Amino acid sequence: MPHCNKQMISFFLTTKCNLCCRYCYNAHERAQIKEQTLPLEIAKAGIDWYFAGNDSRHIRFYGPGEPTQEFDKLKAITAYAKASKNGGERVTTEIQTNGVFTEEVRAWVLDNLNIVWMSFDGMRDIQDYNRPLNPKYQAAFGGRTSAQVLEENVRWLIQNTNDRNLMVGARVTITDKNIDRQKEMVNYFYDLGIRYVWTNPLFYSVDKIPVCDDKVKRKLFSFDMDKYLDNYIAAYRYAKEKGLFWGSFLTVNFDGESAYHCRACTPMGAPHLTPDGYLSACDMVLMGTEAYHMEKLIYGKWNSQKRIFDIDAAKVAALRARSSDNIAHCKNCEARLHCGGYCLGEIVNETGELDGQKPIQCAAIKRLLKEIGTCEPYKYLHP
Ligand code: SF4
Ligand code: SF4
Ligand code: SF4
Description:
The protein is an alpha/beta fold. The chain has a single domain, classed as Aldolase class I (TIM Barrel, Alpha-Beta Barrel). The protein contains 12 helices and 11 strands. Strands 7-6-5-4-3-2-1-8-9-10-11 form an 11-stranded mixed β-sheet. Strand 5, helix 7 and strand 6 form a beta-alpha-beta unit. Helix 2 packs parallel to helix 3, helix 7 runs parallel beside helix 9 and helix 9 runs parallel beside helix 12. The protein starts with 8 loop residues before the first strand and ends in a 12-residue tail after the last helix. The model has no long low-confidence stretch (mean pLDDT 95). The site of one iron/sulfur cluster has 12 residues, from helix 12.
């Protein structure tokens, strides 16, 4: 099923985070603003509005920081959605979390969430290097490292799932630390009980200017795409034999056909509510007040006087027009219906334009399509 079929309302709960990941794509952005959390009133209005106009009853929690850091709000929003008269009993839930949370949180996760994507970079040495605990939070976890807490939470959730509708998977950022350890990671995750893993090549963080205008950032960034692909393909085949799904962000549309890359092109069916009360089309645009070059992906705002979401119809139309049918370099591409013009968030962040291109990613997608090909519908779509 094409990735744009992942329709849901996402809540970007809070800018607070208990980790200090080396590559955090928004750490700089978060450091420059006052800590903010999505007001409950806006979240509730978002649920009423979304359920009234859409068939999906899927709700999801994500950044800009770590959603479980606002545990009371996480619980309150979930309870409100589930109690909704408008189909609340059909509500399904998803979170992308760093997995470094307390026993109280994990007990609630077990009974209330259906899809849990752990941002998890593999074996302890990699996880603790890439995703260390913020020193301010070390005491709360008894001096354990982020890898130790995460492993324990994953094991506990999987061991206690029983007949609950719960899947605990991993969403792995690939950096030079784990790029050639993908097969080893397959074994590691398998032994923890994880069966679904999506890998994402490292991408540029979001700042105030597009990456094309930022020489320093470009100089500091490196990612060896050929090395990723060689190791990915070997790990994908190895994992398949073991009964583990090893996905790549570059193949999110290989299980269906669509000229759209993802939900960002169908924003009314998949809004993301930011902590400052805006509607974002994309996981990479987490705050609306000062979105700079990512502004193209902010298409609405909560109007507290009228108590409605004001929608910018021209922006919605521009996003809906962004497809591989309309982008000049995509029209004749053999991967057109299995790529959809690639990730808008990364493209806009790097080129400043909705129809920009990342040629290295294009070549990689075409290679993957040739070497591993299309597949049956994914059971768990990329977060
Ligand atoms: S857990 Fe997420 S928000 Fe927190 S530092 Fe890491 S990447 Fe950034
Ligand atoms: S980051 Fe890319 S894949 Fe994710 S919502 Fe944004 S455009 Fe879509
Ligand atoms: S691989 Fe490149 S050219 Fe082909 S559809 Fe995707 S973005 Fe367009």
